[in-house]
Amino acid sequence: KKKWSKGKVQDKANNNVYFSEETLGKLEKEVPTYKLITPSVLVDRMRINGSLARRALRELEARGTIRLVSAHNSQLIYTRAPVAVATEA
């Protein structure tokens, strides 16, 4: 009698669907320091769902803390905003 394997079982992602105060603070503080910022990076590191990640990125871009590098269909790529360097004259 053959015993068939059950296949690979993947863990269910238990991501937040609302911003908590802790997550919001972490988002505002840490995300602008990332070199590459995409919705999938936020989902992975912040444990939030994709729609929250996209909304957070739009908000950070509106504030000017990050800037859009490329937008192709649903894949948005951001990077940290250039820091204004004081020039000595």
From TrEMBL:
The keyword Ribonucleoprotein applies. InterPro entries: Ribosomal_eS25. Pfam families: Ribosomal_S25 (PF03297). Keywords: Ribonucleoprotein, Ribosomal protein. Gene3D superfamilies: 3.30.63.20. It comes from the Eukaryota. GO terms for cellular component: ribonucleoprotein complex; ribosome. Belongs to the eukaryotic ribosomal protein eS25 family. This is 40S ribosomal protein S25.
